[in-house]
Amino acid sequence: MVSAKRQKEMKALGFLLQNDKEHYSVRFLSKAGNFTVEELNNINKIAEKYGRGYSGLTTRLQIEVPWIKDEDAEKVIQEAKALGLRHGGTGQKVRPLVSCKGTVCLHGNIDTQAICRELDRKYFGTDTPHKCKIGIVGCANNCGKANINDIGVMGRCVPKFDSDNCVGCGLCVTNCRQKALQLVDKKIVHNKNLCVECGECVRVCNSNAVTVKEKGAEIFVGGRFGRGMRIGDSLGKIFKEEEIVSIVDTIMEYYRQTGNKGERISGVMDRIGKEKFIADVLNKID
């Protein structure tokens, strides 16, 4: 039986005690949800040697190898280091960052994985008042559920319509899943209230009747999911792709300055008011 002290020490290293209180699942960390073939082969070696020959995926795109005996834990740590594998991902820290495949997905409006790798390099495993989750998605499909993370980034593409160039083909209408476009007298009518700025109309238009007015990301703060659920609040504007990392820098700095121990971003916003939190962040940016 693993002692409580030992359990806490190992959890900080990404070794989570299983319900039999005798074995761990060790969590190996991806880079923006990606592992190289070599990394996967090395994880397989550890699973075969110290586990029971299988591994599982976590909800934050990491790989866990279960059934690691306590007496083998140090050997696994040493071998993982020699093989170049990272493990961890728990505690009052920035948790493993999650990105969708927007970088290569045909719906992606931003380079989600490059942004995720940069933020991972700067923030993963760093101390915060409480656990902090960051998610990046490329479009309104929101596959990675950006707005239920403490900080969420969602790619947006705001369309611009030129009726003089419109030939009335209806391609954009057919491809608009939100039904935000209509063809009236062979010209496009845009309903901004229904539009989610996914950019699909821009991608399918062949006549330059729909072009990019603004492209980048909307950023959400204060989301969470689990025992307490809260949808994140938008900072209220579209940021250019090259601004995203610096905006997250500002949010993280403000959170660390303002948050009390044991308080997630949502807790800070509940305590001081979401309007003040957002206004203070935007003032620091300006």
TrEMBL record:
Its EC number is 1.8.1.2, 1.8.1.-. GO terms for molecular function: 4 iron, 4 sulfur cluster binding; heme binding; metal ion binding; sulfite reductase (ferredoxin) activity; sulfite reductase (NADPH) activity. Pfam families: Fer4 (PF00037), NIR_SIR (PF01077), NIR_SIR_ferr (PF03460). The keyword Secreted does not apply. Keywords: 4Fe-4S, Heme, Iron, Iron-sulfur, Metal-binding, Oxidoreductase. The keyword Mitochondrion does not apply. Belongs to the nitrite and sulfite reductase 4Fe-4S domain family. This is Anaerobic sulfite reductase subunit A. It comes from Clostridium ljungdahlii (strain ATCC 55383 / DSM 13528 / PETC).
